Amino acid sequence: MSFISSKYSEEYLFLNPDILLHPNIPKPLHGVNPRNILGDVWWNSKRLEVYSKNNYCCWACGVHKTDARYHRWLEAHEEYDINYKKGKVKLVGLVALCHSCHNFIHDGRMRMLVQSGDMDYGKMVDILDHGDRILKSNSLVKEHYTGKIAEWSKWYLLLNNKKYYSKFKDMNEWAEYFSNL
Question: Which of 8, 91, 110, 140 makes the best surface tag, with the fewest CB within 10 Å?
Answer without folding.
Answer: 140
